[in-house]
Write a structure and sequence with these properties.
There is one protein chain. The protein is extended. With about 80 residues, the protein is an all-alpha fold. The longest helix has 14 residues.
């Protein structure tokens, strides 16, 4: 019985080596902080990368089925800027 050999070209070998070197981003779990706790506002600002402004509101959207319709509606109703 003959043994089959796979011969990789130099480009394929480099691609294979580089694919093993990619860095996976670690999964990050948000801290469990209740709305009334002092660190809540700072934590929310850090996760949203935005300052909270009095009078605005926030709504938790869980996935693309909830996120995209809300985002598109906000874009359609914007009167000056979208951030």
């Amino acid at each position: 019985m003959r043994r089959a050999c796979i011969r990789l070209g130099p480009v394929a070998a480099i691609c294979l080596a580089l694919s093993a070197c990619t860095l996976a981003r670690p999964h990050y779990a948000a801290p469990d902080i209740a709305v009334g706790q002092p660190a809540f506002v700072r934590t929310l600002e850090a996760h949203a990368d935005a300052d909270l402004v009095r009078g605005n509101r926030a709504q938790v959207l869980l996935n693309g089925d909830e996120i995209f319709p809300a985002m598109l509606a906000a874009i359609r109703s914007a009167t000056s800027t979208i951030t």
